[in-house]
Fold this sequence. Notes:
- Helix content is 54%, strand content 7%.
- The protein has nine helices and four strands, in the order αββββαααααααα.
- Strands 1-4 form a two-stranded antiparallel ribbon.
- Strand 2 (23-25) and strand 3 form a beta hairpin.
- Helix 7 (158-187) packs across helix 8 and helix 7 (158-187) runs parallel beside helix 9.
- The relative contact order is 0.06.
Amino acid sequence: MVIRLxxxxxxxxxxxxxxxxxxxxxEGGGFDYDQxxxxxxxxxxxxxxxxxxxARLKHPANMGRTLHEKGTKNAxxxxxxxxxxxxxxxxxxxxxxxxxEAEFKNVLLKHAQDLAAEQSNPPSETRCRLAQGLWDDIRRxxxxxxxxxxxxxxGHKTIHKxxxxxxxxxxxxxxxxxxxxxxxxxxxxxxxxxxxxxxGQTLGGLIFALCGGQPLVIVMTTAPLSLYTKGKYSAFIxxxxx
Length: 242
């Protein structure tokens, strides 16, 4: 892409191109380049004001080797600003979902205003509130709470995908529940049987999906939970008998 852009300018007016690209921690523990976005900058003497252009490629493309350079020039500072904005994965996803130029500009402007508000009003660290992190998570996710459920029924072939996922997860969750329910029935001498295990997992999953902010998290009975139940039951029985 850089080579094609250079071909648009005469030889004696060829600008200097620089690129900024994000990095992330790979599975092996090292760092790798984030290939989902790229910020390119250049200086041109004939331009008297800064210009910003944002393009979303229709098909994936190999941009070649990129570098992360530092400096104090206007083009580089502008590029670093937009690189910081595009480093937000949720923001990039919102940009991919827009369909018109006006929507694209509105999303970009809204995100810039939110960043400016956060910088101008930093959170106070002098007060210690109970469950501060939990309330912050709820405040950040509150405007997406409805869409977490509605998105499963809106869109092309979404109903088919949702129903197939429901049946798949039903059988994936019910079988371990029956198996560990039978184990709990044996360990607790019938106090916690299969029926109670199914009811408990159903209620726990519904409450967590409605109040936990993550409806896609699967809550199911596991072997450590069965061992914990056996240990607590044995401890209570020994105390009661004693």
